[in-house]
Amino acid sequence: MQERYTKPKKRGKTMILKLLKKSNQYESFWKWFVKQESNINMNFESNKEGFMDELSSRLKGIDNNLTFEISHTQEEKKRELVISADGIADSFQHVINLCDAAPEFLNWIIIAFRPRMNSDEIEIKMGDISLSYQDVHFRFIDNGHYIDLDIYIEDLESNRDQFINMYFILLDSLIGEYDAVSKIGNTNLFDRNSYNETELRRFIELIEIIDALE
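The chain above was modelled as a monomer; its predicted structure follows.
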């Protein structure tokens, strides 16, 4: 019987090269950060804009949706670098891979995705408009592994775009970015003034529902 050899398709080779390129990008990012982390840690407040621009540029070189936050933990006297996909599910794997590739740091804690804030009350302000946990109510449909949400906000239509942006920031702060994307399906937002809904849940109750999902 004659043996046949089929040359691998170029797209397979291209895919491998792309994966290797991304892996190299993760390593390159952390090599740069290792060299700069002490400088950033010591001088962040005095050169915040410069450091943030450089970090943003390097993260977007990996994936244009990647963003970050830097905070300071008073108890541990360390800085936290939160790497986020900005709620875009297609970019989640890059966040996971990049954080998995991170080395150990003495003065930094590397966190994948915006975490829960573990607070009973948070308020977001944009100009003269504010939105807090107390201002948001909901109903939900349980689909087993995820839920669909109907969200009710008073005066939503008066500044709809701003309220929607603030709502999704509150959602990340309440249940964390990963759960906000992976455990919530469809979301419909309504102006509570236009609906006579009495059996609505308080926004803070969403935590218990999310944590009970399979």
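The chain has a mean pLDDT of 88.
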